[in-house]
Structure formats: structure tokens, C-alpha cells
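Thread amino acids onto this structure.
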């Protein structure tokens, strides 16, 4: 029973993240959106995304940081 409840909660959280990112999509660059999806939804590490894109991990980190900053600005009325 507990495992079923945990699985349901995990599925709910993933669905919520996906819906939230989709809502924010219009406010992010395509690269920011992709970085967040790969990191937050697919669970990829920044170095994995960097290897996939052929960029440095710090470049991926910047995209994720900028995306989070932009989403906060939109949510809290500064965007």
C-alpha cells in the first residue's frame, strides 16, 4: 500500500512539474526550456546535458539558473 501511494505521489509530482514547465514555456528561451526539461523531468545531470549538447557543464548550469530566475520573475510579478 505504501509503495503504491509513493508511486502515485511521484507520478503526481512529475505531472505537476511537466504542466508547470509547459505553462512557463512562453517565457523561456528554447534552450532554457530544454535544459529544464532534461534536468527536472528526465533527471539528467548537467554534465550529461553538456555532453549531449557539446557545451560545458557551466553553460548548462547558466541556462538552468537563468530559466529559474525568469520563472521566479514571472511568478512574482517582475516579468
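Threaded sequence (79 positions):
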Amino acid at each position: 500500500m505504501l509503495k503504491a501511494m509513493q508511486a502515485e505521489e511521484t507520478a503526481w509530482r512529475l505531472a505537476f512539474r511537466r504542466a508547470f514547465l509547459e505553462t512557463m514555456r512562453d517565457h523561456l528561451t528554447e534552450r532554457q526550456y530544454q535544459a529544464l526539461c532534461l534536468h527536472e523531468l528526465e533527471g539528467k545531470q548537467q554534465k550529461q546535458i553538456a555532453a549531449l549538447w557539446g557545451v560545458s557543464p557551466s553553460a548548462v548550469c547558466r541556462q538552468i539558473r537563468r530559466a529559474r530566475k525568469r520563472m521566479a520573475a514571472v511568478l512574482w510579478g517582475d516579468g
